[in-house]
Each structure stands twice: as structure tokens, then as C-alpha cells.
């Protein structure tokens, strides 16, 4: 069953604590909304499943269409409906980051700046120091719990957000939490610096090929080897010159040393509209400009493009922002 109360909390970071000495340590963050309501954000830094090290990606110059949606949210908790058109996150169906850049890191090591807790602390402490910074915590809400104070920060009522990580493709007892369009993350707006920071976490035991309805791991799917995708999206003409319907195209590159048969492959837009890739063999090192049918649309306010193989598995994906799409006639290069 998917998460019961998935959403995003927008607030100011006012405190943070490393939590050690438990089987499932967390990095704890205290956020406060505009009404003075406090929340605890419990971020997993160690897995119960083997291997115990989490995969992480920190993008200190995060550029994605979701930031425009976040910037108009009022401070506080926002319940999100799961689906491709919302503000919600999906590590598999979106391209929030390059999965080839994910790295495992222990939660606690001797010395400064060399473990996952240190990495999180560096980003959160920066947000605490900067008065204009806003932290957006995606995950599942708990509370309010008026009977007892918060166990870490002591505020009342106990209140917070957890599951700040990928929430699909789980194994064992955690399979019950699987769902689509309900992944967790921390995204930090730094207006004074005119940039965003994206922090994304996943367990090494999770699968990156999941069912489009349940979010469960696909049993027969191949094991991902990130960065070894044979065919990749390298460019897109998002905003062609001329009136609608515009002749949008997506350019594919066969980066592998072998020819690839593209018969049965498809391109998908942010709204999950599907268009076919012309069948035939793409030679090693060759490119192919794929014209998009009218139902597949690359919006000028930012969007995403996903490449699927004949089994419907994601091979590659890219995203672009409104700033990249604003110049008419220019091709966006990824």
C-alpha cells in the first residue's frame, strides 16, 4: 500500500541533530512554518537491509521544473496527490538527477566531512544560517502527537515528516510502502544565492525498474548499470520557430560500440504521453532526430523526456527548465 499521507513541508530550518546509537540512525532536522508550528524531519542515513550504506546525490545547483512549482507554495504542510502532473517526486519516472552520479556512503565515520551525516549537516547548517533559505521536505507526515513532546527537539505537539528517500522498489517488510509518485527528498531554496540544492537518497536494496501502478520491483527486469545506457537523449528542439503545432524533435545518440535496433522504443513526456521512435537500426556512434507526434508535448515552461525500450523499461531521461526553453528555435543540449 502506498504512503498514506504523502506531501511536502515548506519551512525554515532552525535546528539539526545527528542521531547515533540506534539500529536505524537518522539525521534530524527541525523545521518551522510561518505560523510557528514546528516539525521534525527524520532523514534515514543507514539501512536495515544489506548493504547498509545509502545511495545519495547532492546537486548544489539543482535545475528542474519542480523548483518553479515549489517557489509558489506557502510555508507549511501540503498533502500531494500521486500522479505525473503534480509537484510530487518519482525517482524512476522523472529525471531529477543523473542516476550514474549516485554514490554509497557510510552514515558515521571518524573525522569531519566524510560520512552521510556530515554531508547532510553541511547543507542544513547552511540553510539555518541563511535567513531567506527555505527547506522543502518530501515524505510522509506523522502527528500531531499532543500527548508527548518531540523526542529529539522537545517541542509540542510532536509533529513531523519521515520517509525522506525513494519509496518504491522495496524488498521484504518495506514492500508494503511501495508506490509511484511518492518519493522523498530534501530540496533547499537559497534565494540570496539564486540557486537550489537537491538532496536525494535511496537504499541499495531498492529496484529502479518498478510497476507503474504498484511501485513494486519488476521481477524480470535487468539489474541497472548506471552510466552504461547504450542509447541516450542528447538534445531536444523544445521551442521551434513558427505557430502551433510546432515541429518538436528529440535527438538520440547511440553511445555504445554496437548497433541498436530501436523497433518498439518510445519517448514519453512529463504527462506520460507516449510517442514511437522510428523503427530500425541505429549504428554505433550515430544520432537520430525523432519527430514528436502532436500528443507528446515539450512544454516551454520546463519538462521532462523519457526514453523507453520495447519492454517499457526506462533507458534514459532528461529534464529542462523554462529558462532553457525560452529561446525560440534553439536546441536544448543535455
Task: Write structural notes for this entry.
The two termini are 36 Å apart. This protein is mostly beta strands and 334 residues long. The strands form four sheets. The protein has a five-stranded mixed barrel with strand order 1-2-3-8-7. Strands 17-12-11-20 form a four-stranded antiparallel sheet, with no helix packed on it. A four-stranded antiparallel sheet has the order 15-14-18-19. The protein contains three helices and 20 strands. It is 7% helix and 35% strand. Strand 9 (185-190) and strand 10 (195-203) form a beta hairpin. The longest helix is centred in the middle third of the chain and has 14 residues, at 116-129.
Supply database-style keywords:
mainly beta; 5-stranded mixed β-barrel; 4-stranded antiparallel sheet; 20 strands; 35% strand
Could you give a short description of this structure?
The protein is mainly β and 334 residues long. The protein contains three helices and 20 strands.
Amino acid at each position: 500500500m502506498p504512503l498514506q499521507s504523502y506531501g511536502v513541508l515548506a519551512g525554515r530550518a532552525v535546528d539539526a541533530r545527528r542521531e547515533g546509537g540506534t539500529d536505524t540512525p537518522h539525521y534530524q532536522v527541525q523545521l518551522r512554518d510561518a505560523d510557528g508550528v514546528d516539525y521534525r524531519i527524520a532523514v534515514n542515513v543507514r539501512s536495515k537491509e544489506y548493504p547498509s550504506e545509502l545511495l545519495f546525490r547532492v546537486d548544489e545547483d539543482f535545475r528542474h521544473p519542480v523548483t518553479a512549482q515549489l517557489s509558489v507554495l506557502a510555508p507549511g504542510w501540503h498533502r500531494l496527490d500521486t500522479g505525473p502532473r503534480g509537484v510530487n517526486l518519482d525517482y524512476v519516472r522523472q529525471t531529477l538527477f543523473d542516476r550514474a552520479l549516485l554514490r554509497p556512503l557510510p552514515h558515521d565515520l571518524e573525522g569531519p566531512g566524510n560520512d552521510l551525516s556530515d554531508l547532510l549537516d553541511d547543507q542544513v547548517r547552511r540553510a539555518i544560517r541563511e535567513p531567506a533559505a527555505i527547506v522543502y521536505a518530501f515524505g510522509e507526515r506523522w502527528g500531531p502527537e499532543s500527548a508527548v513532546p518531540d523526542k529529539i527537539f522537545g517541542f509540542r505537539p510532536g509533529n513531523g515528516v519521515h520517509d525522506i528517500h525513494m519509496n518504491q522498489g522495496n524488498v521484504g517488510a518495506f514492500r508494503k510502502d511501495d508506490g509511484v509518485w511518492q518519493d522523498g527528498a530534501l530540496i533547499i531554496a537559497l534565494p540570496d544565492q539564486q540557486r537550489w540544492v537537491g538532496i536525494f537518497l535511496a537504499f541499495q536494496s531498492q529496484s529502479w525498474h518498478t510497476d507503474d501502478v504498484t511501485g513494486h520491483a519488476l521481477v524480470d527486469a535487468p539489474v541497472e548499470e548506471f552510466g552504461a545506457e547504450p542509447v541516450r537523449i542528447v538534445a531536444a528542439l523544445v521551442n521551434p520557430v513558427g505557430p502551433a503545432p510546432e515541429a518538436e524533435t528529440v535527438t538520440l545518440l547511440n553511445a555504445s560500440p554496437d548497433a541498436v535496433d530501436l523497433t518498439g522504443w518510445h519517448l514519453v513526456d512529463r504527462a506520460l504521453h507516449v510517442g514511437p521512435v522510428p523503427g530500425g537500426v541505429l549504428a554505433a556512434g550515430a544520432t537520430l532526430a525523432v519527430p514528436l507526434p502532436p500528443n507528446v508535448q515539450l512544454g516551454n515552461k520546463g519538462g521532462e523526456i523519457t526514453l523507453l525500450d520495447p519492454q517499457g523499461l526506462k533507458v534514459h531521461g532528461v529534464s529542462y527548465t523554462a529558462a532553457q526553453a525560452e529561446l525560440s528555435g534553439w536546441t536544448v543540449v543535455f
